[in-house]
Amino acid sequence: MTTLANYRDHLAEMRKLNSAASLLGWDQQTHMPPKAGPHRAQVIGKLSRMVFELSISDELGGFLADLRKDDGLSQLEKASVRKVGKDYDRNCAVPPEFVEQFQIAQSEAQAAWIAARKANDFASFQPHLEKVVEFARRLAEYYGYKDHPYDALLEDYEPGMTCKQLRAIIEPLKRDLVPFLRKLATDGTPPDRSLLGGSFDPDALRRLSRRALGFIHYDFEAGALDDVAHPFTATIGPGDVRITNRYPTDSPIPSLLGALHEGGHALYNQGFPEELYTLGLAGGSSNGIHESQSRMIENQVGRSRAFWQFFQPVLAEHFPQFATGSPEALYRAVNVVEPSLIRVEADEVTYNLHIMLRFEIEAGLIEGSIAVADLPERWNQAMKDYLGIVPPNDAQGVLQDVHWSMGYVGYFPSYMLGNLYAAQMLPKIRKDLPTLDADIRRGDMRPLLGWLRENVHRHGATYEPNELIERITGHPLDPAHFVRYVKEKYSDIYGL
Ligand code: ZN
Questions:
Q1: CA 265 / ligand 1 centre spacing (Å)
Q2: What spacing in Å lies between the alpha carbon of 288 and ligand 1's midpoint?
Q3: Do residue 341 and residue 461 come from a single domain?
């Protein structure tokens, strides 16, 4: 057998184990009986270790060394060697004892975080977070970096992105968004969202989610929709990309937009050609590009005027009280902008501000310019500066997110980048699909889906995000697109 064939076989072995681990992880969140927890953790742990061992094996190292010298590879094969090789180098750079100690510190920090958030007690979490930050800094040293240790960590989530590049994006964004938010609050007329309130049957909400997923052409023959406490999308393998959702009963909107959000992630993963699976390229280009696909369907589609012109009668089929309202009133009601304490509840305008303050804090923690002990104060000051509100307690402030306790440092920017990538793709989509709004108004998502398949989905992880966005739009990531998008949309809604 050729090296390439052996290499593909090796990746196939990793893929099968990953697939089993994903399925067990999905089951853990959706159907697993509570008492199965400890055993399940052992089984998933075992599978993860097996995958990790294959990912740093000498055998794989040998294949990569040969293939890196091979001039006869196709574009896709080259992309595969680049990506798998990068993961190999990074995984090999970290001593196994360090990985194990970091994992222990993470599980202890997570338990401490749950208790600290419940008790609103940052001080009890502080020593754990200090430990996690110390581990993250050591991890950055193992990985290595050119400019900033944060870059080494960012690479896990947003390959090729740097701290410097993020700062260059965030500064102008902040200068535009903060005053615009103030202007909406002082000069704008907020929409009435009381029409969305009431009490809604969860079964009807579930049917509505399925209907919305049908509208975006989520393939139920290659997926499933299940209930869960914290929604996510699980890719088990080719032909199996599952969505989860939850159904709060006081409004139809969170579950509807939640279905569209996870549906956007799932469309991406259902759109990977099978060839990518065999080359280790069946994944998003980055977390940020993945988030751009979910935000595109949730916001650019689900929070658009055209969508509500189509969807109002659909909503009314499930909930007759909406039969008499106007699509315009619904469109406005789902687009209220309001500074809020909690990131996951934030609207399109304020969301990125929540991310900026997290990025500034975590970059400061990694470079050592901010101490963990100062976090509550830094957090509250930034909330005041950016959003004009101050959390009444740390549970609703610095303790709200699970990420840092899990050792995820460098993850948050992906959420913001997703919004920016989506906003930059939109003008290009409109240029290529001049009838986009009319199509959506008729309930026809095929043209948009076709565009996303062609430009984003079919490439999987072949291109890194900087390269992909430039290929699609002709220039590097530029936050001006997002600023233009929110200013146009919300000046109209708020009558500025
Ligand atoms: Zn998402």
A1: 7
A2: 9
A3: yes
Same domain, 123 and 175: no
Q: Are residues 61 and 184 in the same domain?
A: no
pLDDT band at 335 (very low <50, low <70, confident <90, very high): very high
Same domain, 311 and 458: yes
Q: How far is the CA of 412 from the centre of ligand 1 (A)?
A: 11
pLDDT at 170: 96
Number of domains present in the structure of the chain: 2
Does pLDDT of 494 surpass 90?
yes
Within this chain, do residues 337 and 413 fall inside the same structural domain, yes or no?
Answer: yes
pLDDT tens, residue by residue, 75-103: 999 999 999 999 999 999 999 899 989 98
Residue 367 annotated to the active site: no
User: Residue 372 sits in a domain of what CATH number?
Assistant: 1.10.1370.30
Q: Of the listed 155, 158, 262, 291, which one is catalytic? A: 262
3-state secondary structure the chain: CCHHHHHHHHHHHHHHHHHHHHHHHHHHHHCCCHHHHHHHHHHHHHHHHHHHHHHCCHHHHHHHHHHHCCCCCCHHHHHHHHHHHHHHHHHHHCCHHHHHHHHHHHHHHHHHHHHHHHHCCHHHHHHHHHHHHHHHHHHHHHHCCCCCHHHHHHCCCCCCCCHHHHHHHHHHHHHHHHHHHHHHHHHCCCCCCHHHCCCCCHHHHHHHHHHHHHHCCCCHHHCCEEECCCCCEEEEECCEEEEEECCCCCCCHHHHHHHHHHHHHHHHHHCCCHHHHHCCCCCCCCHHHHHHHHHHHHHHHCCCHHHHHHHHHHHHHHCHHHCCCCHHHHHHHCCCCCCCCCHHHCCCCCHHHHHHHHHHHHHHHHHCCCCHHHHHHHHHHHHHHHHCCCCCCHHHCCCCCCHHHHCCCCCCHHHHHHHHHHHHHHHHHHHHCCCHHHHHHCCCCHHHHHHHHHHCHHHCCCCCHHHHHHHHHCCCCCCHHHHHHHHHHHHHHCCC
Rounded distance from Cα 262 to ligand 1 centre (Å): 6
Mean pLDDT of 310-326: 96
User: Which pLDDT tens digit goes with each residue over 101-160?
Assistant: 998 999 899 999 999 999 999 999 999 999 999 999 999 999 999 999 999 999 999 999
Query: Quick one: pLDDT at residue 1?
Result: 79
Q: What is the pLDDT of residue 96?
A: 87
* 272 shares its domain with 367: yes
- The Å distance, Cα 495 to ligand 1 centre, comes to 30
Span from the CA of 9 to the centroid of ligand 1 (angstroms)? 31
Cα–ligand 1 centroid distance for 261 (angstroms):
6
Q: Give 469-493 pLDDT, tens digit per residue.
A: 999 999 999 999 999 999 999 999 9
Residue range(s) defining the domain that contains residue 128 = 3-144
